Amino acid sequence: MRIRRGFVLAAAVLTSALVVVGCARDTGTSQPAGGGGTNAGACARNSAPSAPGGSSASPAPALPNADASGLKVGLAFDIGGRGDASFNDAAGAGLDRAISELGLAKANTKELTAGPNESEDAAATRLRQLASEGYNPVIAVGFKYATALKTVAAESPNTQFAIVDDSSVELPNVTPLVFAEEQGSFLVGVAAALKTQTCKIGFVGGVEQPLIQKFQAGYVQGAKAVAPDIQVDVDYLTPAGDFTGFSDPAKGQVVATGQLDGGADVIYHAAGASGQGVFQAVKAAGKSAIGVDSDQYNIPGLADVKDVIITSMLKRVDVAVFDYINAAAAGNLSTLPDTFDLKVDGVGYATSGGKVDDIKAQLDAYKAAIISGAISVETTPTSS
């Protein structure tokens, strides 16, 4: 595998006549197949694994709906909040489902949203506000709340908190809601390798930090399980600590355009709202894209680009938020899984649009192999 490191400056005139200069970090490129991987059919592809017995997903039996009418639920969104067509919208959908199915009164909910690159004090103030106003439980959406939550949860021992995508806060009143993103990403990597016509695919991450690197690691491993010589271009919109990479569609469009110009014909993004720009670039090029977190093919705000979305890596934040509220209402948080993984249908891939129907058998064979343990998916990118 050939590794490229360094910042890439790109400029493009977008359809809105906005000129954007994007700064992206390219953190890994595999060796191209077939002298650059630009010829249709250049990839040599492995057969799917034989499905081991007893390895289908076995989600826990659905628990009866508890009565949440007595709860006040606070939701602290990550950057972008509702309307990001991704991670935050999934969390919001879980809250909406609790209102619809558990008797939670909408008037007894409150939503607050993080700002880009805000201070830890600002994040703590948001959580502290929800707790002080009597919201219990309070759900922090995103790992960036971890430091603030550790402080605020210790200050408010009688308030129950949950945090999505972090397990570092070890306090009795904090419940982690974490996912095996690498497993779902492996499956969409398989899809990309089976669908590419150039033997070159791309990954666009929002911020270069460990959580998003899990998406990258699984995607690359899945693609190479199918086509060992496939080339995978990897770019991050911003370095660790700069969270604007999750809310900059213009930069996403610029970086994705660079990958497409370089020969990639399938691009997977894990970039939050910036993924909307990735889709626009793919649409303009007439190539294929893979969504993330939600089934992005079915998101109304993405209707103009849905035809290029062949699948999405499903990260069931909506299920985790709903299940947490249900468990809190029942007074029994022990019913929640330690990790929302393939085995409990906490992650997966979408089939909306029918664009992966022809490869579903292969995808499900790899899924079964992961569930059985025959395939172990890496959580960090390999450097060689």
UniProtKB/TrEMBL annotation:
Keywords: Cell membrane, Lipoprotein, Membrane, Signal. Residues 1-24 form the signal peptide. It is a lipid-anchor. It comes from the Bacteria. PROSITE patterns: PROKAR_LIPOPROTEIN. It is found in: Cell membrane. The keyword Signal applies. Residues 76-378 form the ABC transporter substrate-binding protein PnrA-like domain. Belongs to the BMP lipoprotein family. This is BMP family protein.
